[in-house]
Design goal:
This protein has about 750 residues and is an all-beta fold. It has two helices and 64 strands. InterPro entries: PorZ_N, Quinoprotein_ADH-like_sf, Secre_tail, WD40/YVTN_repeat-like_dom_sf.
């Protein structure tokens, strides 16, 4: 146990500084779901689901902050910017609070509320309000003081009846009193009272359920849960105006009151005269759901739940424009495909039982050249629950997306142009719901070497289909190998060097199909039936040694050679046994594995349902990395999918709360040395990273010497890239100068020489 503890401690200590160390990360987050807004005299600060962005109203400069910078992947519920303290405070639904210091860029996490001995459901931070250097944090249990000077928490106020926990939605100061809008009345207390932790010092001004309270110059305004706006008349709140819908946000900024409902924003002056109302049909994307609104100078900003932040002139002149940073449509990316030049992402999903309901309708996203293209649902032929996407390897402009309800969508030149379904193709609808129920469940897809597209069609007898290059469809019956094909769903499919298709199934392990002999075989649960730990397989991958790695909901198995399909009547996979604490253990024992991919150096990246992502050595004996939310920028430990850019080695990790990438060096090996390059070159004094030699063939020998021929480094490539830390065999940093890089193939038949300049 001591060794295990030290290993975990090492990971935490060494990887906590991931942004500054050898590990390099990039975030690809959606900023579309706006949770809250704050403002300074020049800038609007916007919180999306689990990331921040700010926009300077004068320069239009946009800055983003994500988990790569130190935020949590948890869901944000409130944000506040203190202009006097130059700090931005972020509150989360789980009670976490993060302090971002504008002066030095530091980010501090405060877990005091999380650690309170209260039900986790009561720790949500609803609102942040500053007064005299103190921040009053409204939570679902009461109010907590936070000192902005010391960044330390102070007193906690439980202000419900008899000191009970009570949900406080918003606080404000008015005429010497602190007012709190709660789920059980508006309550107030004298701010000079030194004993505010005593619930009896808080008196009920009005009963009922209240959602907001704010001070507008000499007015005190509150709104109840039914959307009735009230004004304070020195001892009680009196009804002023009834909104057509309940409000979702209210705030006073620069002598104006902004009241937001899901479809409208109402702007009042400090005399409570309505000066402007904005409905969602006035925005470029109509019928959006509003979440909040504020203003900087004469610019009004409106947050939406679907398309981010919009701005327009507060005076009403001109149109609204979108201010949201580029990103995918949403954070919950279910599946990816990545080529050397492009990334595609889809959002449809299913639960652990392969149930696609409710039927998601989110469209598809593409990323290349640092730009996002989001294809909306309205353009995908009503294809629901799009769960997989694949780029044609011989034509990058052609993409296919699997709908787990509607069929197979074809996209060409970034435009969806055809939906294959039960009426126009070989695809079939499930039949157990009756002849009039249409449900075409397409999931796993793979191209073979001749360009045919193989797809799985769940819960029917002919579960394996192929779309041939001539446009014709052919079906193969999986009912001959499966115990119940009409109850079977499929995850992914891979094709080996012998053109055998390996398919992961929901209830019968892995099935394999040889097209030339029309033969099926399978591995499933049980020692004599394939030796899988369970019959529910979620991912299969073939490595560079022709081993089949099998990820199940209860652990990992490996088939030693895919060629066994030709020679063995009953295929058998085995666990990988490792030593931990001098005891034999099974690698990934009992883990719910969601995804397995193989990088250019034959390392395995293994995603899990709740334990983050593992990177293990080619034989699985060494766990090189185990990334979680605690030691990396992962926004969630739930890994939906992993894909690797074979040219750059960048590992894209899709979670249910956002996508990040790990910029590794395990690129695929090249066929020759014609495209070898060294970067960065030159190496300047400010650079603290490693020098990469890329474009290599596998098992190439690399020698680096100074200009006089003295050897300073030597290694053998595994894949397409190696790293040099610019030291002489790790002893000391080499001096400034030109260094020669000599590269030769393993058999000496091909060589290449490069130069790199180092400037100290």
């Amino acid at each position: 146990m001591t060794r295990k503890f030290l290993y975990v401690l090492f990971l935490v200590l060494s990887q906590f500084g991931f942004a500054q160390g050898q590990l390099s990360w990039e975030g690809y987050f959606s900023f579309n779901e706006i949770k809250d807004i704050s403002e300074s005299s020049t800038t609007v600060f916007t919180a999306s689901e689990n990331a921040l962005f700010s926009k300077n109203a004068a320069s239009n400069a946009i800055k983003t902050i994500t988990t790569v910078d130190g935020l949590s992947g948890q869901t944000i519920s409130a944000v506040y910017h203190s202009e006097s303290f130059k700090k931005t405070i972020v509150g989360y639904e789980n009670g976490l609070m993060i302090i971002i210091n504008e002066t030095d860029g530091s980010i501090i996490k405060k877990v005091d509320i999380i650690n309170k001995q209260l039900s986790a459901s009561l720790k949500k931070i609803n609102h942040l309000m500053e007064h005299n250097g103190l921040l009053y944090v409204s939570c679902d249990f009461g109010i907590v003081q936070f000192n902005l000077t010391t960044s330390q928490f102070g007193d906690t106020y439980f202000i419900g009846d008899n000191g009970a926990e009570i949900s406080v939605k918003q606080t404000t100061f008015f005429n010497g009193f602190i007012f709190a809008a709660t789920s059980s009345g508006i309550r107030r207390a004298d701010i000079t009272n030194p004993n505010l932790i005593d619930f009896s010092q808080w008196t009920v001004v009005n009963t009922g359920n209240w959602t907001s309270v704010a001070t507008l110059d000499s007015e005190l305004i509150a709104i109840n849960s039914t959307g009735n706006i009230h004004r304070y008349n020195s001892n009680t709140f009196v009804s002023f105006s009834q909104l057509p819908q309940p409000s979702v946000d209210m705030r006073a900024v620069n002598h104006n009151l902004f009241v937001t409902t899901s479809t409208s924003v109402y702007v009042y002056n400090n005399q409570m005269v309505l000066t402007r109302s904005i409905v969602n049909t006035q925005l470029p994307d109509i019928n959006l759901t509003f979440s909040c609104a504020s203003a900087v100078g004469d610019i009004i900003y409106i947050g939406t739940k679907e398309k981010g932040l919009f701005s327009g002139a507060l005076s009403g002149i001109g149109t609204f424009e979108n201010n949201t940073p580029a990103g995918p449509s949403r954070n919950n990316i279910f599946s990816l495909d990545v080529t050397p030049n492009v990334l595609w992402a889809v959002y449809g999903d299913y639960d652990i039982y392969y149930n696609p309901y409710d039927l998601d309708s989110y469209g598809i996203s593409k990323f290349n050249n640092s730009k996002w293209l989001n294809i909306p649902y309205s353009e995908v032929y009503d294809a629901k629950s799009i769960t997989r996407v694949i780029v044609n390897p011989s034509n990058e402009k052609q993409v296919y997306a699997s709908s787990f309800f509607s069929g197979l969508l074809r996209i060409e030149d970034d435009v969806p142009n055809f939906l294959f379904n039960e009426k126009n193709s070989g695809l079939e609808t499930l039949t157990y719901e009756g002849p009039n129920y249409i449900d075409v469940r397409i999931n796993g897809t793979a191209f073979d070497r001749t360009g045919n597209l193989w797809v799985t069609n769940s819960r029917i007898k002919n579960g394996l289909k192929v779309l041939k290059t001539d446009g014709q469809w052919q079906s193969y019956s999986t009912s001959t190998i499966l115990s119940n094909a009409e109850s079977t769903s499929y995850a992914n499919i891979v094709i080996d060097k012998n053109n055998v298709k390996w398919i992961s199934t929901s209830n019968d392990g892995v099935i394999a199909f040889n097209e030339s002999t029309n033969t099926f075989k399978k591995m499933t649960f049980g020692t004599d039936a394939g030796n899988l730990p369970i019959a529910d397989v979620r991912s299969v991958a073939i490595d560079t040694k022709n081993q089949l790695w099998i990820g199940t909901t209860k652990g990992l198995r490996v088939l030693s050679n895919v060629g066994n399909f030709q020679t063995e009547a009953q295929l058998k996979a085995n666990p990988i046994i490792i030593l931990e604490d001098n005891l034999a253990q099974e690698l990934m024992y009992e883990q719910f594995i969601t995804s397995i991919v193989v990088d250019g150096a034959n390392n395995k990246w293994i995603g899990t349902a709740d334990s983050g992502i593992f990177m293990v050595s080619p034989n699985g004996q060494e766990t090189k990395y185990h990334f979680t939310i605690n030691n990396s920028p992962l926004p969630s430990n739930t890994i939906n999918d992993i894909k690797i850019n074979s040219a750059t080695g960048e590992v894209f990790i899709a979670t249910n709360k956002g996508m990040i990438s790990f910029k590794g060096i395990a690129t695929g090996a090249n066929e020759d040395l014609n495209n070898v390059y060294v970067y960065p070159n030159p190496v300047r004094p400010s650079y603290s990273g490693t020098v990469k030699v890329a474009g290599l063939i596998d098992k190439a020998n690399i020698k680096i010497t100074d200009i006089e021929g003295n050897l300073v480094y030597e290694t053998t490539s595994e894949g397409g890239t190696i790293e040099w830390d610019t030291t002489a065999f790790g002893k000391y940093k080499v001096a400034s100068g030109v260094y020669m890089v000599f590269i030769s193939a393993q058999d000496g038949g091909e060589t290449k020489v490069k130069k790199v300049m180092i400037i100290r």
